[in-house]
Description:
Chain A is mostly helical and about 375 residues long. Helix content of chain A is about 55%, strand content about 5%. In chain A, helix 10 crosses helix 12.
Amino acid sequence: MLAALREPARLGDLRAADWNLLLRVARHARLLGRLAEDVADAGLWSTVPERAARQLQSARTLVAHRQIRLTWEVDRVLWVLQDLDVPVIVLKGVAYMLAGLPAARGRLASDVDLMVPESDLAAVESQLLERGWIRGAIEYYDDRYYRRWMHEIPPLRHAERDTEIDVHHRILPRTSRFHFDPALLIARISRVPGGRAYRLAAEDMVLHALVHLLLEADPQEGLRFRDLVDVADLLRQFGKDPAFWDRLLVRAEQLGLGRLLYYGLRYTAALLGTQVPAAALQGVASQGPVLPLRWLMDRLIPLALLPEHPDHPRRRAAFSRLLLYMRAHWLRMPPILLFQHLGSKALRRIGVRSLSRPPIAVEERFQRR
Amino acid sequence: MKISEFTPAAWSRALRGGDGVVVRIGPFVVRMQTAVSDLARLLHEMWGHYPLCPEEPLRDCHLRVDWNGWYRPWFRPSSIFRVDGRAPFGPFPARHHLPMLEWGLNFCIAQRSHHLLLLHSAVLERNGNALLLPAWPGHGKSTLCAALAHSGWRLFSDEFGLVDAERGQLLPFPRLIPLKNTSIEVIRDFAPKAHLGPTFLGTRKGNVAHVRPPEESVTRMSEPARARWLVFPRWVADAPLQLEPMVKPEAFLMVATNAFNYEVVGQQAFELVGRMVNGSDCYRLVYSDLAEAIAALDALAGGARV
């Protein structure tokens, strides 16, 4: 998989059995659509075995459909919010699509991520709810958890459509160790070409992708490999401007995300062969962790990040994923809150709910609807 | 080599082994593994006509049915279905292994076959012409399909109308036909030659028994056909037989809105369905008696031969 992403031109050398494994791994990593685009761009369709080509074609069709659907959803959201005079910032996949970045190529996105200034959040939410979007069924505790501590409100979905939208007001939970004032991001947004939506500045896009990669671990998947691919794609595109790297370093320091940038540059360069200027690597070196921790992360991160052989999952990799998942939660909120949250989740698992739901909950929920 | 040519013991061993078995089902190549011996025995019988293709290195899906924990063969037996190492649904009672495997395979094909247009329709063939029976659940599509498959029509599928987007042809995908509740007895009476598997009680769709695809439908599963008739069947108790022509725009809407991936395939799907409806005679069929319904459909096919 790594070799395929680093040097798509060599996909033509693969034997049918290699394709079988590559397709399975890429499917797991949700990178099948990306692989299909790489095959197309390298002009290699004719070298791909027919059965593999069909799977790639299927993935391409699905990606194209999703991209149309998400673009349309954003269009509808912007239309509904047009008289509010609120800058609607598109994030992640939708931003790559609307900004015409190569990171959107073959990227399978499933929901729309948006950000608005926190001061406008209530107006935006009520406008959306009034105009046909609905909340999913959500427990009171989860709803409160989202609103009090998280960086987004519970997902919304239009009654007639299938696409989830996540409205953010910052890119990190309020409780995160790395939390910073989102006004800093909003100060540097710009309009996407030919549209009403806004996007983050180039450096901020990279840093947001890194936040996703390193702080939003998933217990099953560990760190998401496709998030690393996003980071690498953005760096490759923006890095064509030599001045970009300095700006990126300065910005990371300003937002207190230097450590994340250190990991990001280190692992995109090591795993995906991203060309990072030596000066930039040196610049972030001081942000790195102390040697024993660096040694540990150098082992854990690739294990948790790289897709595995579907028939031979490794215990070591599962353990790394668990550790990094715990680390992500550790960084996400202070210990007391984390224990409260885990305790509350545990109680609910065994059926105790009353502790997390004050008596007014029912009326309040009713009014919110 | 066909599955039924294995001895049952060798077949169970192969399914349990590290590489499992590689089976060709219609246009798909499926790798299957299971250590659940009841399921292995049943697959030997019900999948018996399918050919193995161990030489095919590229597989469309890798399926497994496993016990959901080491103690599950004995304590509250439950199993889990995995495709490419992931479980799309939760564990299920172990005695429902075959229906769950068949639904799991349907799910898998529907998820990842957007290189084809997937119509929700039974499909049968006669003299190179395909009959499509698109219908909503409960309208008697599977029952009519099973009956036709044992009355001189070649079975393509009872669930998936696979349309090859390039050539606009329908591809055979002969699978077990799941009959529900009272349909099971209806087919036992109507087609004594049909090979029915055991009845699974209390699945999420009620009682289910499967009809094995007739041998000819499997041996000829690489012969596609072109759509010729679109018939929308509906079983209504005691209703007299009606076979009425249907206007094409209505047929178009019914085929398009009932497909699995019409929206995903997009413009190409619109064009394919359009061509298919234009090239077919479209009817609405209301029936209560299988023999009458089949005679009416035979008459359609007989007329076409001229």
